[in-house]
Automatic annotation (TrEMBL):
Residues 421-433 have a biased composition (Acidic residues). This is Kef-type K+ transport system, membrane component. It comes from Echinicola vietnamensis (strain DSM 17526 / LMG 23754 / KMM 6221). GO terms for cellular component: plasma membrane. It is found in: Cell membrane. Residues 389-402 have a biased composition (Basic and acidic residues). Gene3D superfamilies: 1.20.1530.20. The keyword Acyltransferase does not apply. The chain crosses the membrane at residues 6-23, 30-52, 58-80, 92-110, 122-143, 150-170, 182-205, 212-231, 276-295, 301-323, 335-353, 365-383. Residues 389-433 are annotated as: Disordered.
Length: 433
């Protein structure tokens, strides 16, 4: 039995790797294939009458670990400099505004239709409103750099803001000045903890000479997150600050607090740490979606009573996203389609206590919303790729006509902008000086 489990796990993870590797060609998000693969494994166990223990208790553990690693991976990829201020501002608005707008709109609908309380309705609405960085970031690898950076910032911030908002509502029976005051104090405390922990972990990363050095750093990061969470602190902020700090040492090396650290050595170690984090994230994320697919019942996926609600929620999601992109003066294509729900939606749903659950929001609705948003993203990415290839072919044709002596205006093509990046000439001049 032990050998069978090892063979099965290794085979499933290798298949998960093939799903991820083939995304560039197929444009099919691996989450869909992983859920399907997990569901097929469940059907095989039923068919062959195999008895397996209840694995549902493992799902929140994998989900929480995956969330930490995903946010850390995203934070390590983000750049902090003056030229990114406009992008960060738009990304923050893109993460916060749709989260609040859709949450309160769904809360109102749940209240009016089901007669539930405002707090219970909001707690159940928030998981449906968070963009999944676990799905969004890998899915935009083939987009231009400006669009890719926007999605990394936006989805990472959406994860953090969504979790903070959810925990705030879950832990406060009533919302008033007192609760906001306590929350403000918690933010200050976690920022102080994050700063001290970041210095300590960075020092360890640069000084450890043992052949095992990255695993202890990851374990300490998860441990600090867990302890902060126990004391009701917004622990994901620590993950964000730690990742941003060690990922942007070139911008922070002038700070006196980093004098005790050899930044030249640390930069080399951070690059290795990034690689390990990416691979660990892939492993945990794959296991999470495989297990969630395994735990799905066929009746939950094909539940027609929740399908209408799922379609309605998805329509509202992309309508609000279109408005947000227009207000931010960002072209709709291809970013309109990048609003998938995934790991964070499942994880927050699992954290809802039975007394706070409402009948309208169940596992069927959650999985249907996830599948629909991911399918829409997939179609959007495919159509955008086809459009980009057509433009590329037209560009080659234009070059050919130029060589033939036919006048053209290639400068017009260079003036196309995504609306996300505007060079900061002042910053460039200062850098030159």
């Amino acid at each position: 039995m032990t050998t069978t489990i090892i063979i099965t796990l290794c085979s499933l993870l290798l298949i998960a790797y093939l799903f991820d590797y083939s995304f560039k060609k197929t444009k099919v998000p691996s989450v869909i294939l992983l859920l399907l693969l997990g569901w097929l494994v469940r059907q095989a166990t039923v068919l062959f009458e195999l008895q397996l223990p209840d694995l549902s208790a493992i799902l929140p553990i994998l989900g929480t670990t995956g969330l930490i690693l995903i946010v850390l991976e995203g934070a390590l990829e983000l750049e902090l400099n003056k030229s990114k201020i406009k992008l960060i501002r738009k990304s923050f608005f893109g993460a916060l505004a749709p989260l609040l707008a859709l949450s309160f709109l769904l809360t109102y609908i749940f209240e009016q239709y089901g007669g539930y309380t405002f707090r219970d309705s909001l707690i159940n609405a928030i998981p449906l409103c968070v963009i999944s960085s676990a799905i969004a970031i890998p899915s935009v690898r083939n987009l231009p750099k400006s669009n890719r950076e926007f999605v990394i910032y936006e989805s990472s911030l959406s994860d953090i803001l969504g979790v903070v908002f959810f925990n705030f509502m879950l832990r406060n029976e009533t919302v008033g000045l007192d609760s906001f005051g306590v929350f403000g104090l918690q933010l200050i405390v976690i920022c102080v903890i994050s700063f001290v922990a970041t210095i300590g972990l960075s020092f360890l990363l640069s000084k450890l000479e043992h052949h095992i050095k990255f695993v202890p750093i990851i374990l300490l990061t998860i441990l600090i997150y867990a302890i902060s969470y126990v004391y009701h602190l917004p622990a994901l902020i620590f993950i964000l600050i730690f990742g941003l700090s060690i990922g942007n040492l070139n911008e922070l090396h002038n700070l006196k607090f980093f004098d005790i650290i050899r930044t030249d050595i640390l930069n080399k170690e951070v690059n290795k740490f990034k690689e390990l984090t990416v691979e660990a994230t892939f492993l945990i994320r794959s296991l999470f979606f495989l297990l969630f697919g395994y735990l799905l019942e066929t009746s939950e996926i094909l539940n027609t009573s929740t399908l209408i609600w799922a379609v309605g929620i998805v329509i509202l999601t992309f309508t609000i996203r279109a408005i947000q992109l227009k207000l931010s003066k960002i072209p709709l294509k291809p970013l309109l389609f990048v609003a998938p729900r995934g790991l964070i939606t499942i994880l927050l749903f699992l954290y809802i206590s039975p007394e706070n659950m409402i009948g309208l929001v169940n596992k069927s609705l959650i999985i249907q919303v996830i599948v629909l948003t991911v399918l829409i993203m997939m179609v959007g990415m495919i159509t955008n790729t086809n459009h980009a290839e057509e433009e590329k072919e037209e560009g080659h044709l234009g070059e050919a006509t130029d060589k033939a002596g036919i006048s053209s205006n290639p400068a017009a093509e260079d003036e196309k902008s995504s609306g996300l990046d505007e060079p900061d000439n002042t910053s460039e001049d200062e850098a030159t000086k």
